[in-house]
Design goal:
single chain, elongated, about 110 residues, mainly alpha, about 60% helix
């Protein structure tokens, strides 16, 4: 049986590529990841701002802690570990391990 011309033309029509779908998913995932990372930065900034405005920390302490925390986020992103995760429930950035002294041994 001989195929008609329209049937032959249908075979030549382009089919959406899986690569196009993967590129779109990749772009969406990249945007989602950027939102997550920026959310961490935003939380850290807001906690630092509140600590200063409420008078619980001096500007020097707030800025030192903010710089150290942002550097940790940067390092984690460079190493592809995804950042710090969460801010302490009490929102005290100054309570991180950089500001704590180890207990003295007897």
């Amino acid at each position: 049986m001989q195929k008609t011309e329209p049937e032959l033309n249908n075979k030549n029509q382009s089919v959406p590529s899986l690569d196009a779908n993967n590129d779109q998913n990749s772009t969406t995932q990249d945007q989602d990841q950027k939102q997550i990372v920026w959310g961490k930065v935003d939380v850290v900034y807001n906690v630092a701002k509140e600590a200063f405005l409420q008078g619980t920390s001096s500007i020097d302490d707030v800025l030192s802690s903010l710089i150290a925390t942002l550097q940790e986020i940067k390092n984690d992103e460079i190493q592809n570990l995804g950042g710090l995760g969460t801010v302490p429930a009490n929102g005290n950035l100054l309570g991180n391990e950089l500001d704590q002294q180890p207990p003295e041994q007897p």
